[in-house]
Amino acid sequence: MHTRKLLLVDDSAEFSDMLRRRLKNDAPHFDVTIAGGGDECLRLLKDDRYGCILSDFQMPGMDGLELLKKIRSNGDDTPFIFLTGQGNEGLAREAFKGGAYDYFTKEVGFAHYARIINSVEQAINHRLAQRLVRKAELELLDEKNKLDDVLSCIGDAISIQDREYRVLYQNPAHRELAGDHAGEFCYRAYNRNDDICSDCAVALCFADGKAHTVQKAGRLEKGDVYVEIHASPLRDSAGQIIGGIESVRDITAIRKAGLENERLFKAVSASHEGIAFTDRADRFVYVNAAHAGIYGYTPEELIGRTWRDITPPDALAEAEGFIEKTLYNSEVGEFSAELPGLRKDGTLAQTEVHATSIWDEDGSYQGHVCIVKDIAERKRLERERSDFYAMVTHDIKSPLTTIMGYTELLAMPGNRVDGDDSKEMLGGIHKSARKVVNLIEDFLTVSKMESGRLVPERSIHDIAEMLAEAWDEMESAFRKKLIDCRCEVAHDLPPAFVDRKLLHRAVSNLLGNAASYTQAGGEVTLRAGRLAGDGRVCVVISVSDNGFGIPPEEQGRVFEMYYRAKGSAGTKGTGLGLAIVAAAAAAHGGRVELESEPGKGSTFRLVIPVVPE
């Protein structure tokens, strides 16, 4: 492909350099020269020729529109395309009125550059085609062979039609794209229509005498394609339109690539992980909503800033040193660490940052891609798990030590333990062993919950009998703590098709929870009754206390695994009891309810269908 010489005019050296590199990457045949303003552009045009000029609209001294007018006043017809950061319809109208070929806003997007490149190609080809057309107007008959040779050298597909839309000429590229249809009506040859196509670019030229560009899908001899057609009127020496000239470009591959890039861009934009791209000065040029949200900003607010603006001042030095050795080192080129982030409101965010640097072929740092995760929840869970394991270690070790101590004492030769002491020690052994067994059962239940294998093993059971057993196991603990305890079970409580062991565990956890969070002299009541409604009969089991109560903001979390309320400090527990209660209710197709008020106590209710749905 022939080299295309472009002149880029912009007072922003950073933007010019970025666009030059992007064009070089996406269109290697482009040779881009940069001018810092209008005066420099005019000097360069005196010394050299360019296929196309891309210019900023607003520049100090001489703006883009003034530059365009001076170029045209010099008789220079070099295609002129505006690139501006403040696009609106008014500016666009001024641009086209002044003779601009096209108009683009400065955007960030994968498909955006493909459209700019395509427009530049079309502008250059259009200019060449227009010059050829002007020459053809005077010498069409005498210079047909010469014109054919010239058009044959052009890479784009070019054809000429008369006022009846009959194909008069096709260059080799056009015949290769659409087949040989000289002498045929274009609408029949290309689209198998009986009349002119509604979106025909040549018809638009005939209507207003201006150039037009359309994009359309079509079925040609080579198959389904997507093409961009640029058409210009062909005039005779008297200025009358005698035909139309079309430049057709197959943009199927470009369109597919653009659609794919747009899909990727949308995926990045919608990602729940924070993603950002920077330039070589580490300024953000793209930030998705998730990335900005982690730091309390909108994406627009972070554009132009750097990672230093979202890093706490006391962490900057350490981060700089680490990044210097990793991200800015071409032999490493990656950075990964847990770093504190500085939010817009001055608070700190716990983040995990992964960054990969970008280098050009000369080994120069061009920026980086950064992925950020908010790990506050993960850190909270890690702390809760750590507290949980510490609690478990204590809760297992303490009863096991008691068991070992009693058994060693009982096994000692010549011990002086009488019958009553032996009985008391065996009771202590049994009680301690029961604690260990309960913990193990909790772990097994949680393991099934986490793996999705908590399936109740149902059979018909007497709920009143199960409740009496759970109450007997806990009554001594209530008495020992001087808690007034009552058990009120309705006489008409029906048997239920349930997993007795799992339901017993849930009730025991509710009773144990009440015992732990009720002070001496308090009250705990176990109630059970029958509930009918919605076509189902349910058993309602409730445990009420007048203990500490649970603040409203914590009530939604008490059923989470490992979670322990802020007021539970100093109270033993693993943070699994209520999670197992909720899981047991769900496994039976029921529910768990909570009513609580700080300082007045809590009521937990298990609603279990007698017969599953």
Itemize the secondary structure elements and their pairings.
Layout: E1 4-9, H1 13-26, E2 30-35, H2 38-47, E3 52-56, H3 64-73, E4 80-84, H4 89-97, E5 102-105, H5 110-139, H6 144-153, E6 157-162, E7 167-170, H7 172-178, H8 186-191, H9 201-208, E8 212-220, E9 223-235, E10 241-250, H10 252-270, E11 274-278, E12 284-287, H11 289-294, H12 299-302, H13 313-325, E13 334-342, E14 348-359, E15 365-374, H14 376-411, H15 419-451, E16 459-461, H16 463-480, E17 484-489, E18 496-498, H17 500-516, E19 523-533, E20 536-545, H18 552-555, H19 577-587, E21 591-597, E22 601-609
Parallel strand pairs: 1-2, 1-3, 3-4, 4-5, 17-19
Antiparallel strand pairs: 6-7, 6-10, 8-9, 9-10, 11-12, 11-15, 13-14, 14-15, 16-18, 19-20, 20-22, 21-22
Helix pairs in contact: 2-3, 5-10, 14-15, 15-19, 16-17, 17-19
Describe this structure in words.
The protein has 613 residues and is an alpha+beta fold. The chain folds into 5 domains: 4-106, Response regulator (Rossmann fold, 3-Layer(aba) Sandwich), CATH 3.40.50.2300; 138-257, Beta-Lactamase (2-Layer Sandwich), CATH 3.30.450; 271-374, 2-Layer Sandwich (Beta-Lactamase), CATH 3.30.450.20; 379-449, Orthogonal Bundle (Helix Hairpins); 454-609, Histidine kinase-like ATPase, C-terminal domain (Heat Shock Protein 90, 2-Layer Sandwich), CATH 3.30.565.10. The chain is 43% helix and 26% strand. The two termini are 72 Å apart.
